[in-house]
Specification:
Helices cover 7% and strands 37% of the residues. By secondary structure, the chain is mainly β. The chain has a domain at 34-122: Signal recognition particle alu RNA binding heterodimer, srp9/1, CATH 3.30.720. Strands 6-7-9-8-5-10 form a six-stranded mixed beta sheet, with no helix packed on it. The radius of gyration is 13 Å and the shape is globular. The relative contact order is 0.26.
Length: 128
C-alpha cells in the first residue's frame, strides 16, 4: 500500500485513513475506509472553536471523538505553536472522528483525489 500523506497524527493510504493515538487508553490506531466517509470538515486550530474540540475523547458539545493531541486546545496561545489544523470526518451512522493534521494543504490535496465525489467537504468546523 502506498502512503500518500503521513505526519505525527495521521497516515493516508490509497484506500484507508489511519488515525494515530485514537483509542483510550491504549493509543492504538483507528483505521477508516475512505469509502465510509460521508462528510469532512477542516479548520486551522487557531480559529477552531474550543467547545467543539477536546484533547482526547468525546467532546460533549459536538459529539466528536477526538484522537490524542495534547496541544490541540492551546490554539494561538503559544507564539511557537505549529500551524496545525483540526479535521473531523463523519463515518456511517453519525460517528464523527476528529484528529489533527500538521500540513492541511498537503493532506487535503491527497485526500481529495481519493474521496468519492459525493463526500461533502467544509472548510470550517461549526458542528452542533
Amino acid at each position: 500500500m502506498s502512503i500518500l500523506y503521513e505526519d505525527e497524527y495521521v497516515r493516508l493510504g490509497q484506500f484507508t485513513l489511519f488515525i494515530k493515538n485514537y483509542h483510550f487508553p491504549t493509543k492504538k490506531t483507528k483505521s477508516v475506509s475512505l469509502e465510509a466517509i460521508s462528510t469532512l470538515w477542516f479548520e486551522e486550530q487557531e480559529t477552531c472553536k474550543s467547545t467543539a474540540t477536546k484533547i482526547w475523547g468525546k467532546a460533549s458539545a459536538a459529539s466528536i471523538y477526538w484522537a490524542l493531541d495534547v496541544k490541540r486546545s492551546l490554539g494561538g496561545i503559544s507564539p511557537r505553536a505549529p500551524q496545525k489544523s483540526n479535521v473531523v470526518i463523519e463515518v456511517g451512522a453519525k460517528l464523527r472522528i476528529g484528529f489533527s493534521v500538521e500540513n492541511i494543504e498537503e493532506f487535503m490535496d491527497a485526500i481529495r483525489t481519493l474521496l468519492d465525489y459525493h463526500v461533502i467537504i467544509v472548510n470550517y468546523i461549526n458542528l452542533p
